[in-house]
């Protein structure tokens, strides 16, 4: 279970989601989705309590703050944050240099094989996004934090990568928090949708509970 209670000027919410579930954060621009992911990642420090599987990661009263590198997370934020002086393969190796098989698997699964020796500046936006996703997975995280991870992909690749994400989420027993603005993507991927507006949670449940029907656009 992930439990978070935030009382900040930007976020005012109390949220519980099950471990090993794929949680989609859904809401208008500025509703606080990225801020919530940054809190779980350990990139924000004050005004919230966070507990993951019974371990307290942030508690302002007890002055507890677990550093990001000790959280077992893989993350893709909107700036990708790839190291510019390293090739795709070297970026992945920095995350998990001891597991070449894992790196080869991810390079292949994310359609990066012909690009593995290129530096980020010589990649398209969609290719950089896939490299960032590969790097997030390279370190075998237990918690995956994805801020619109497929937004720069074409429709065909996007559908295939949704399948890949679902598959790796399930087979590796990950807990995944994913932001998307695409309701069909949310309906396909989510065990649970958390809808947000103005820094608050406005709904939580399976896609059909939150949106009705089969969770599709209507
Ligand atoms: N560094 C910051 N300093 C002050 N306010 C910020 C900062 N970053 C974000 N905000 C504000 O916090 C609120 C939530 O922003 P956040 O980026 O979490 O929204 P979001 O739901 O992820 O939006 P989007 O869908 O556009 O990415 C917004 O009102 C935004 O203006």
UniProtKB/TrEMBL annotation:
PROSITE patterns: ABC_TRANSPORTER_1 (PS00211), ABC_TRANSPORTER_2 (PS50893). SUPFAM superfamilies: P-loop containing nucleoside triphosphate hydrolases. One of its GO terms (molecular function) is ATP binding. Residues 2-217 form the ABC transporter domain. SMART domains: AAA (SM00382). Keywords: ATP-binding, Nucleotide-binding, Transport. InterPro entries: AAA+_ATPase (IPR003593), ABC_SmlMolc_Importer (IPR050093), ABC_transporter-like_ATP-bd (IPR003439), ABC_transporter-like_CS (IPR017871), P-loop_NTPase (IPR027417). This is Molybdate transport system ATP-binding protein.
């Amino acid at each position: 279970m992930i439990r978070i209670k935030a009382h900040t000027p930007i976020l005012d919410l109390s949220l519980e989601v099950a471990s090993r579930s794929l949680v989609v954060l859904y809401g208008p621009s500025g509703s606080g989705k990225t801020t919530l992911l940054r809190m779980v990642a350990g990139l924000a420090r004050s005004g919230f309590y966070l507990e993951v599987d019974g371990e307290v990661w942030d508690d302002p009263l007890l002055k507890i703050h677990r550093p990001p590198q000790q959280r077992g997370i893989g993350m893709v934020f909107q700036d990708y944050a790839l190291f510019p002086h390293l090739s795709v393969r070297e970026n992945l190796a920095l995350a998990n240099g001891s597991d070449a098989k894992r790196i080869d698997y991810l390079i292949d699964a994310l359609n990066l094989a012909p690009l593995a020796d290129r530096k980020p500046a010589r990649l398209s936006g969609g290719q950089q996004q896939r490299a960032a996703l590969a790097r997030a997975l390279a370190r075998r995280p237990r918690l995956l934090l994805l801020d619109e991870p497929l937004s720069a992909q074409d429709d065909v690749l996007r559908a295939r990568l949704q399948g890949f994400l679902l598959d790796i989420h399930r087979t590796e027993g990950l807990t995944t928090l994913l932001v998307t603005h695409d309701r069909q993507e949310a309906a396909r991927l989510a065990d649970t949708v958390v809808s947000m507006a103005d820094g608050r949670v406005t709904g939580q449940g399976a896609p059909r509970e939150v949106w009705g029907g089969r969770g599709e656009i209507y």
